Predict the structure.
Amino acid sequence: MPTLISDQRISRRGRATPELIFGDLWEFDPAPETADPRLQSRYDLFIDGKFVAPKTGRYFDSINPANEQKLAEIALAGDSDVAAAYRAAQRAFETTWGRMPGRERAKYLYRIARLLQDRAREFAVAETLDGGKPIKESRDFDVPMTAAHFFYHAGWADKLEYVAPGRRVAPLGLVGQVIPWNFPLLMLAWKVAPALAMGNCVVLKPAETTSITCLKFATILQDAGLPPGVVNFVTGAGETGAAVMAHPLAAKVAFTGSTEVGKAIMRSLAGTERKMTLELGGKAANIVFDDAPLDQAVEGIVNGIFFNQGHVCCAGSRLLVQESVADRVLAKLKRRIQVLRVGDPIDKNTDIGAINSRAQLRKIQQLVASGVKEGAELYQPSCSLPTKGFYFRPTLFSGVTMSHRIAREEIFGPVLSVLTFRTVDEAIERANNTAYGLSAGVWTDKGSRILKMSTALKAGVVWANTYNKFDPTSPFGGYKESGFGREGGRQGLLDYARLV
Ligand code: NAD
């Protein structure tokens, strides 16, 4: 049994409010999600509306990071497979999709969204098994948001004259897309839905550790009757991705992933006429002023960094807290972290699931070790971790300075670095003191301060008194080394259009 300690606290109005503090975490019975993910033992490439074996004849394993067991074999696409995918896309663009009126394209996008909703539980379980994220996130966020993006872009497909008022828009043609492993289905939707709404055809490569839901999604495209070749999925690692980006038939490439690979792609395509959007890394500041509703802020901070194990490009990985409330915020945070449940992602009670891969776990461990070595103060709850699989405790570092690696480098794990500030200007200066500029959060009672911060912070998204809120209507993208171009909203659609 957990130890329950009753604590009398004095509220702001001076009334005593009883509060229960949990010495240990309540043990719940296991509550695994039981929907059948309907996995195959082997997945081929999806080219020209059909599943085809790779010309390389090679396959690689996709494993469940929660227990290191093999889930399926995934085809490894080589250059000639990528070329076949582009040829199929070109045929589709010239014969069907590129000529189809927007109101007809819209029907396919609606159908795709509805079919995904019908199979939502199955996709949520598959996403969790393959990627390691808690089932409550794939069920309540990833899958519904993916459907929402297709619905939203279905709504645009017959209204494209309003995307750029006064101008006519036309599709670019063929688009090459490469996505990462942190939101496999959602990143697919961010890329595929606007491209199709605008009339483009697609060759997409998912990340090598999370290809399964992409290939399952291909069956939704088949069931929706999407003309063959409009969307093609090629699977593999970096070499396959490089082939997708470099193919001469691509009129545009869209990449989401690390800044390092984004820069390499940019270098390789320098001098070509190809349109490009890059959605890269981040090191967001979540800024808490002393007039903020602190309990609400603590929930936002926890959501901002521990959501999806911190595998979030816009994760609020640097907490900037005003000095006068720093001790209170830290104490509240430690208590909150103590009751986060780390464990089997398929369990409906789990808050923090598995790290996506052994390589990512090592990277997190190395950066955390550097934080300790450089003198920051580490706090981790005492929870036990499963013995098999890739797990990392939620971690909080206080006493961090901007010279520490953990304050500068993207960790992409459940690790929060806490820094303090005294004045508004100091908060702005510290928040912007990073190579990245994807997102930021501001917690304050003052509307005028929110407005000032939202213009002063060099970040594509600034959340105010909330964090990690997404909507298909809202464009998302970065400043500086977080990339360029936008996904979502009217601006995201424009990035898939030619103005004529
Ligand atoms: P990564 O750059 O290692 O890989 C991303 C994708 O690129 C994978 O599909 C990979 O196979 C492919 N790839 C690898 N080398 C390539 C090459 N030379 N050419 C073409 N493709 C190549 O990144 P990751 O570890 O999978 O993802 C984590 C990174 O993604 C983090 O930095 C995160 O911030 C970023 N991210 C950004 C956003 C955003 O919207 N800005 C969203 C999600 C993730």
Remarks:
- Residues 135-157 form the longest helix (23 residues).
- Confidence is low (pLDDT under 50) at residues 1-22.
